[in-house]
Amino acid sequence: MFSLFGWLSNDLAIDLGTANTLVYVKGKGIVLSEPSIVAVHKATNKVLAVGKEAKEMLGRTPGNIISIKPLKDGVIADFEMTERMLRYFIKKVHNRSHLLRPRIIICVPSGITPVEKKAVVDSGYQAGASEVHLMEEPMAAAIGAGLPVEEPSGNMIVDIGGGTTEVAVISLAGIVYSRSIRIAGNEMDEAIAQYIKRRHNLVIGERTAEMLKMKLGSAVALDEVETLEIKGRDLVVGLPKSIAVSDAELREALDETLSAIVEAVRVALERTPPELSADIVDKGIILAGGGSLIKKLDIRLREETGLPVTLAEDPLSCVVLGAGQVLDKLDLLHKVEIN
Predict the structure, then answer these.
(1) Secondary structure (H, E, C), the chain
(2) pLDDT tens, 44-57?
(3) Phi, psi (rounded to 5 degrees) for 29
(4) Domain locations in the chain?
(5) Could you read off the pLDDT of 153-195 as tens digits, one per residue?
(6) Which of 58, 223, 287, 303 is at a distance of 20 to 30 A from 36, taking alpha carbons?
(7) Cα 269 from Cα 249, distance rounded (Å)
């Protein structure tokens, strides 16, 4: 039951992402967007840094400090670290008395198992919430992208995050069909690192791979050739070395991952009821999530499906914005939350 005590506190919506965690405070909007990383001292198990500070340490820590990503493929891999990270973020945005415990909506992948659900709910309560509600990421992304989810018409959303890609068809505030594949931004980074290693005998860190993806990654040929100089360790001689990488090489590196995402969209379209398919032909597909920012991904999807494809207005924040809107609509929360 929604207590007055819970209502008085600043309710939160949290997009607990594999790559980034975003926090929305009721009445204030998005107040926090930080990497989902925790830096811990090995011997004492003391948390040294969380979020941006911890990401700065990635790949640069001495042996007694480890950087942990507590979420893998969109779900909790390390319960204790997730709880500590959540507690840190909640404390950071709730700069005030601990007497008021917030009501929290946490967004999770649609393919989440009952065990994974319990881990998310427990971590929310452990971090100081008075109530924890779970909401599927594609539903939150659709609301955040401004789709009319409560109407009796089909809306298709493709949310490409860090750990998972969620493809969903939504109608009447429910998910008619959803497919969650554990191929997304992190897989792209890994594919780039492996390609550079194979092609150039150069070992690069995950931060360099991510930077390459963001600056050079594309789904179809660009209008002009782009190159970028990167540094890494030469596998043959073991010394630092720099090389130039082109957008064509990045396309080759990302092709397999992007093909898997396109295939997931095709399968979803094949399994959508005919009436809703007709709506999708009119409205098209909406892209959300950080992975959707790969250059010209919308063009590749359009070519492969023959449907209009639109990038959401704020793809990185769609999920948390959608969950934030639901904080103000209790009737909608009852329809869209998962038990």
Answers:
(1) CCCHHHHHCCCEEEEECCCEEEEEECCCEEEEEEECCEEEECCCCCEEEECHHHHHHCCCCCCCEEEECCEECCEECCHHHHHHHHHHHHHHHCCCCCCCCCEEEEEECCCCCHHHHHHHHHHHHHCCCCEEEEEEHHHHHHHHCCCCCCCCCCEEEEEECCCCEEEEEEECCEEEEEEEECCCHHHHHHHHHHHHHHHHCEECCHHHHHHHHHHHCECCCCCCCCEEEEEEEECCCCCEEEEEEEHHHHHHHHHHHHHHHHHHHHHHHHCCCHHHHHHHHHHCEEEECHHHHCECHHHHHHHHHCCCEEECCCCCCHHHHHHHHHHCCHHHHHHHEEC
(2) 989 999 999 998 88
(3) 90, -160
(4) 4-140+318-338, 143-183+254-311, 185-253
(5) 999 999 999 999 999 999 999 999 999 999 999 999 999 999 9
(6) 287
(7) 30
- 90, 10 in Cβ contact below 8 A? no
Q: Which superfamily does 4-140+318-338 belong to?
A: ATPase, nucleotide binding domain (3.30.420.40)
Q: Do domains 143-183+254-311 and 185-253 have the same CATH topology?
A: no
Q: Residue-wise over 234-252: b if at least 16 C-beta within 10 A, else e?
A: eeeeeeebebebebebbbe
| Fold observed for domain 143-183+254-311 | Nucleotidyltransferase; domain 5 (3.30.420)
Contacts of 287 (CB under 8 A, 6+ apart): 158, 160, 297, 298, 301, 309, 310, 311, 312, 315
Could you report the per-residue pLDDT of 116-131, keeping only the tens digit for each?
889 889 988 988 888 9
Q: Which CATH code of 3.40.190.150, 2.60.40.420, 3.90.640.10, 1.10.8.50 fits the domain covering 185-253?
A: 3.90.640.10
